[in-house]
Amino acid sequence: MTKSPPERIRPGSPITHQKYIKKTTISLSSCFSPKLSILLLTTCAILFFLYQIQSLHSSSPAFPPSWSLIHTLSNSTCSQNSHQDPLLRSMTEKLRESVTFLPLKDLRYADKAHQGHTWFMSSMYDTHMEGEVQYQQFPSEDSKSRLLCLKGRDNHDGSWNYYALAWPDTLPVNATLMKGLTFVSYNHYNYENIWHGLSAMVPFVAWHARNNCALPSRWVLYHWGELRHRMGTWLRTLMEATFDRTPYIETFEGIEDNDEPVCFEKAVVMRHNEGGMSRDRRIEVYDIMRCKARVYCNVSKEEDHAEKGKTVIGMTLFMRTGPRSFKNETAVTEIFGRECAKVEGCRLMMAYSNNLTFCDQVKIMSLTDILISPHGAQLTNMFLMDKNSSVMEFFPKGWLKLAGVGQYVYHWIASWSGMIHEGAWRDPDGETCPYPDSDPRCMSIYKSGRIGFNETYFSEWARDVLNEVKARKLEAAPAQHSASAATIPNIGCGCS
Fold this sequence. Notes:
35% of the residues lie in helices and 17% in strands. It contains 14 helices and 15 strands. The chain is elongated, with a radius of gyration of 28 Å.
């Protein structure tokens, strides 16, 4: 669905900024005099030069309340008198021209690009309360009431895109003001892979839930400071479900010149993905997204997953094609099907992740208590299952030694979304590497390997997990029955 772009304003006259300028109740025109003009000009000049001492790279604490009061009064008086005094008007213009733009990607930090303050907007530090997301908000006390401004739309080199801060009444020359709330995302990976994309979106959902469910007018997406024009379909649909509106991806196509700045009435910047969030906080966020996705896709758990008091166990083989797929899908399906058939109420499903719509995946996951799948992005769907569901993961040969910590991402998301990761089976057989097994060059051979099977191991593993799941469901059944008769608590932002 195509949406018209959110409202934009091209500043350039005092009227444009009138609604953003704090006014005093004193009528300055009634007491205006040459001496007062000189005094006001001197005050504005002193404040301007004092402020320039505070560079963007300063990590000093926010100005004390006295500075904030002087800044508010000086903005108001300078703005009102600039229409009457050419010297004050000149000072305002100089403040506009003094806004300093810095590269979005700071190459000095290339060796630790996504650590600490990161190489994205490297002069800025995040607001971070224990257990919560790390974010920047503009305007705010930390930004000294300044707005975030961006310039450039290069999608190949982030060092050619720029950022700056400016006060609302002295925006850069030729700047366009974009009204409403803007979400600015920095992703060190990409927005097409559903795991990497989801990880970048989670903090925005957390901020949204903690800020009166505020809705973004637009999204600005960056990868290494390079502008990105889209999210993957799965991710875009999840965000549409979560925020009750189709995400508008801002690409600044309406800005004629790359050197023309764009400033935002309100902006929230995320650049650390889920870093800094507590497990409990992450579980809350995944609860919201699961609930919103089911509502969006019209999935009713009560109608589809229960069978008149019976304990139903949904076991799903979530298959891949190509890299990291099973070599013999028929044999694997038969093994798990045979064990499922031994347990009353067990239902086996098999699906391919690459030919399902978003809502197809939501529906299947809502019916799944045991998810069986090779390592891959499709496992990200696990958070759409009921909490305390089980995940069984499979790897080709060679990953344990060479794949690094990235091979554990689905252990992490299982924990963060309230699922139970039942472990992983790693195929001991596969392609032969001409180098020693620990040689990093072998990973290029093992990365896309296919996965065999071990009938004995798979059978015993499936039997154990089925017994655990059945016991959990029987234990939880009385509590679920009581909850269904009571009022279901609101999860957050209108979802229950």
